Amino acid sequence: MREGLTQRLYRDFADLYRQHALPDSESLMCYGFECGDGWYDVLYEMSTKIKAAVDAEEDVEPREVAVSQVKEKLGGLRVYMSGNKVDVDGVRQALEDASRRAASTCERCGSEGSLKKNHGWLMTLCGECEETRKANSERRLQVRQQRLKMLLKDSGVDTSERVSL
Ligand SMILES: [Zn+2]
């Protein structure tokens, strides 16, 4: 996620994301939000709900609940918490809601999306971002084939047949 959005989440939910300042031996939050910008709204809503749930619990202090990692895995949103007071109903509900919402939200642009599969690779995308991604990878492949053909030509190999990588 780009820096501006990351900093906004750190600023608005300073207690929740305070572990971003810790070394990676203590928390993986130092790597920021390891997902696309499209999930910013999902994370903002989740953070708002967690904060509200923690504020509503009399015996839980805000500093007893922290997020230790946020990442995309197999096309889904994964959020890990730390602290012995994270087992609050509202917190668990907020994590479930975020995971469900992310599963139908394009990770690139935030539009409605669904899980897309490509060569064993998974990502939640909308139709348009999926087309862009396909076009880009097709273009990269063409450039690579062009380069390979030139290399082979230089070395005297017959390139009249389509070169496959
Ligand atoms: Zn999209």
Characterise this structure:
This protein has helices spanning 3-12, 40-56, 89-102, 127-154; strands at 33-34, 66-73, 76-82, 114-118, 121-125. By secondary structure, it is α+β, with helices and mostly antiparallel strands. The protein has two domains: 3-108; 126-165. A hairpin with a 2-residue loop joins β4 and β5 (121-125). α2 packs antiparallel against α3. The two termini are 32 Å apart. The model has no long low-confidence stretch (mean pLDDT 91). The site of zinc ion has 9 residues, from α4.
Chain-wise SSE layout:
Layout lengths: L2 H10 L20 E2 L5 H17 L9 E8 L2 E7 L6 H14 L11 E5 L2 E5 L1 H28 L11
Parallel strand pairs: 1-2
Antiparallel strand pairs: 2-3, 4-5
Helix pairs in contact: 2-3
Bound molecules: zinc ion.
The site of zinc ion has 9 residues, from helix 4.
User: What is the helix/strand order?
Assistant: HEHEEHEEH
Number of helices: 4
Strand content: 15-25%
Question: Pairing-aware structural class of the strands and helices?
Answer: alpha+beta
Cα gyration radius (Å) = 21 Å
Overall strand count:
5
Domain count? 2
Distance between the termini: 32 Å
- What is the general shape? elongated
